[in-house]
Amino acid sequence: MRLCFLVEEQYRHDGMPLDVIRQLGAWGHQVDVVWPGRSLIPISEAIQAGSHDAWVLKTVSGGPGLTLLEAAASVGLTTVNDVRAIRGVRDKALAAVIARSNGLPVPATYAAARPEEFAQIPEAEFPLVVKPADGSSGRAVRLVATPDRLLDPAGPDATGEPGGTAGGLLIAQPYVPNSGTDLKVYSVAGELYATERCSPLHPAHAARERQVPLTPEIARITAEIGTVFGLDLYGVDILLGPDGPVVVDINDFPSFRQVPDAVARVSAAVLDLARNGTTGQAAGPASCRLAAGQPRVMPATAPTASPFTAPPAPRADRPAASIGGGR
Hints:
By secondary structure, the chain is α/β, with parallel strands linked by helices. The protein contains 8 helices and 15 strands.
């Protein structure tokens, strides 16, 4: 198969997706790599019907890669995930509305262009978690204890503007009391894996990142997110609050940390989705609530051997390539 990965500068050295790209190449598939943020891209030639079996996106939320992925979808190319699903979760304000309207446990969400506008929220709802609507990787997420602290600097990930944003929409949600540990659940084409890690809002809390058992309730919520948004490869951040689980973030193509044999599993999932189409594409453009298969909850222990059959030997005549710029 011939695949194209869109990888932005932030992920230039990350194992996910670079190890997946190497694995697919070792299995004999041709992988072209586009670097949207630092190269001239001949889109008239690169994005054509039939040019690739699938395009895969690993970029920051506000980066140019999503436009290129949408261009690929516009000429009929398969995208992983479905491009409409990606747009639905990249905008956190939009994602909150979609999730809450479909009965998912998401906090009440407020949106504003300037952080001081959140002072209109009743003080009883403070503290608030404030973050950019197009943020990623936990950048510029901050806990605001009282309305008079809304203009405090956001810390080392801020852009220098009050509240940590240089423009664009912000969202605010009431803080969910929790133990200081986030639950991160990954879905790899229907197989679910639960991990826990220290919350970015509680960096002093000691929590070893590890795989943990997945309860039926958390599995149901995670699977429902895939159904609602039409996602196949995704991660969900969940807090165990006093009133039960609360979804605080959804990510397309996350890191898949602590997933056993993550590179092989994700690589195999990409190939399967490239061959058979993604959940959103299978459902059709008129669908808002997209169908998904029954998920498989995977145990919290690493397997002793990979479940995948041995791939074919790499083809020397079809190495991984780069479209439109240096590597």
